Amino acid sequence: MTRRVTIADIATAAGVSKGAVSYALNGRPGVSEATRAKILAIAEEMGFVPNRAARSLSVSTAQAVGLALRRSARTLGIEPYFMELISGIEATLSAGSYGLTLQIVDTVEEEMEVYRRWWAERRVDGVLLCDVGIEDRRLDFVADLGLPAVAVGGPVAGARFPAVWHDDAEPCREILEYLHALGHRRIARVAGFAHLLHTAQRDAAYAETAAELGLDGMTTVHSDYTGEQGARITRRLLSSAKRPTAIIFDNDVTAVAGLGVAHELGIAVPDGLSIVAWDDSPLCRLTHPALTSLTRDITAYGSQCAEALLAHIGPPPASGEAPAFSVQFRPAQLSPRGSTGPARG
Amino acid sequence: MTRRVTIADIATAAGVSKGAVSYALNGRPGVSEATRAKILAIAEEMGFVPNRAARSLSVSTAQAVGLALRRSARTLGIEPYFMELISGIEATLSAGSYGLTLQIVDTVEEEMEVYRRWWAERRVDGVLLCDVGIEDRRLDFVADLGLPAVAVGGPVAGARFPAVWHDDAEPCREILEYLHALGHRRIARVAGFAHLLHTAQRDAAYAETAAELGLDGMTTVHSDYTGEQGARITRRLLSSAKRPTAIIFDNDVTAVAGLGVAHELGIAVPDGLSIVAWDDSPLCRLTHPALTSLTRDITAYGSQCAEALLAHIGPPPASGEAPAFSVQFRPAQLSPRGSTGPARG
DNA sequence: CGACGGCGCTTAACCGGATAAGTGCTCCGA
DNA sequence: TCGGAGCACTTATCCGGTTAAGCGCCGTCG
């Protein structure tokens, strides 16, 4: 295990000072082109890679972004959403040679503590906040800390930092009109966590469209996004006297579980029941029939979030143009598949 | 955004030198108990958190572990395996106040480049190698680099660093005997990537047990673990003249896809076809019928891997007892559910 | 009584970069 | 011919910790 090569080694080899090497490597003025070329060649030949800690200490930047996820291992595992998001985030970050530091936490308190520590340690330059809630203590906490952040989801009222989100109202309208056009009148919805911002947004959007279409029998049940709850709620819905002819699920996992329950109860899909899932993932194409779902490119969404964060971290506040607050991402698109059809009778 | 508190600030406040503060905070001798208590109290009061970069620079340790995943965003998203693994890894790491740095890569070359960079930058103190292959160039590469590593999977022949794995032979035998006892004689297997070590191990184990049981018609088809391939292969298997009465899938995703195909072809499960899935995840309980599967605690497995890595990084090689090479994890257990039953006719 | 050892603390160097300030040189114009 | 600007590079300092070495003071023992 040979010793690492430092700029001092390069300086010695090139017969110049450490300072000159630093200027040369960072493309700053202060050295002649000939010397710069020579230094770069030597650095390349010696396989020089700057020590991250030393650079961080000097410029007081971590070149890393933090992501704290407050979901259980099981939920994280089965929700394609997070891994796709992470994958997108990661792609943008590594293109900008930023690292991604990941931590899984149990409670909001723990999550905030992680942010406090990360920032105090200068382990990260900024964080991405997932699962934005209606009343979200993290928002003020992080802003007060001075820790650059971007909310994954929004728009956040009175935001003190950027958010990246997509309009859910439009897709909600699209689904409901689609199901209505297919003749469905008793439509149920298995929603996500009631405290999440986007759940509330969808709640409102469905209510509005339902009113316009004269669908007054729409029931909404909130879940924790797990398959177990999805199955249990679906079982209850399908066992009721006036059972729905269509169910909208707020995520893919509960939708797949719901489909399983329909099979279990001998209800044919889509003849006896239509199913729509949010968050089109490969999961939706695994089942038979494949699930009609709302497609959005979560990986691209993750990239966009990371970009917003880098932009927010990046330029010193002197810059003329204000950072783009609250970027809006393209809304989800309905992808009709085999799980939806005309209402029976 | 107030300036960070450094040990110099504490030193001033306590009326001592930086050195004394450092000794006090690190629990080393060199200060009286009274002074230590005073310094600790002041540090606490001022909310001191050491700067990671400064400490790293001094002690040349990153207090972080790297994980590079060579899978596509879509695969990562839908495979519960990785998130559960990460979750377990993360739990152990954060308990030891290590960070986890994640990177997603496309090719082996890129992956090795990431290791080289991480190590040169001293961004990580060690890495976990997933998806260990039969001929794995990464193993020697990482060992030559001097980068501490632990293989997630094994045993690795001629290993130059520890591995954590579980015996797959025993569960393979268990499955085959179970299906044999149920009367199945035409059993197919949808395996994973042929180049992966554990696939080869299972290949061998099945072949051996099949020979013992006199099952000579066992066909094995290798897949890339995706639902698409799982579905396609299953469709082919079920369309053949002498179609199997049972299929073993090497992961949960292909198994769920296979179940979908059975539905599609109107083949009842388990009456017309029995299905067994490896890697019991919530996914296996989402379907109807729920999938008989091989349960292993992947989160705990991840923890174990992280522990092995920390142990390998941790004590300087002087230590008396050799680091535990090649920890064996408990084998997977068969969890029979609704997708398996007696062979028909 | 003086030498010695150890405690408790300070001093200073170091980790590996970035960077402001300083130095010697050349070239230019007055 | 000389002052001054500007280039190319060096020197020195800083970032915030860790740590070896040094130093004064006290108690102890020969």
How would you portray this structure in words?
The structure is a homodimer of 345-residue chains. With 345 residues, chain A is an alpha/beta fold. The longest helix of chain A has 17 residues, at 197-213. Residues 316-320 of chain A have low confidence and may be disordered. Chain A has 14 helices and 12 strands. At the A-B interface, α4, α5, α6, β2 and α7 of A face α4, α5, α6, β2 and α7 of B. Chain A binds a DNA duplex (30 and 30 nucleotides) through residues 4, 6-8, 16-23, 26, 28-32, 35, 50-51, 53-60. Chains A, B: Keywords: DNA-binding, Transcription, Transcription regulation.
Short synopsis of the structure:
Helix content of chain A is 46%, strand content 15%. The first copy, chain A, is α/β, with parallel strands linked by helices and 345 residues long. In chain A, helix 12 links the parallel strand 8 and strand 9.
Draw up the topology in text.
Two copies of one chain form a homodimer.
Chain A: H1 7-14, H2 18-25, H3 33-46, H4 52-59, E1 64-69, H5 73-78, H6 80-95, E2 99-104, H7 108-121, E3 126-129, H8 137-145, E4 149-152, E5 163-166, H9 169-181, E6 187-191, H10 197-213, E7 219-222, H11 227-239, E8 246-249, H12 252-264, E9 274-278, H13 282-286, E10 292-295, H14 298-313, E11 327-329, E12 333-335
Parallel strand pairs in A: 1-2, 1-3, 3-4, 4-5, 5-11, 6-7, 6-8, 8-9, 9-10
Antiparallel strand pairs in A: 10-12
Chain A binds a DNA duplex (30 and 30 nucleotides) through residues 4, 6-8, 16-23, 26, 28-32, 35, 50-51, 53-60.
GO molecular function, one term (chains A, B): DNA binding
InterPro entries (chains A, B): HTH_LacI (IPR000843), LacI/GalR-like_sensor (IPR046335), Lambda_DNA-bd_dom_sf (IPR010982), Peripla_BP_I (IPR028082)
Keywords (chains A, B): DNA-binding, Transcription, Transcription regulation
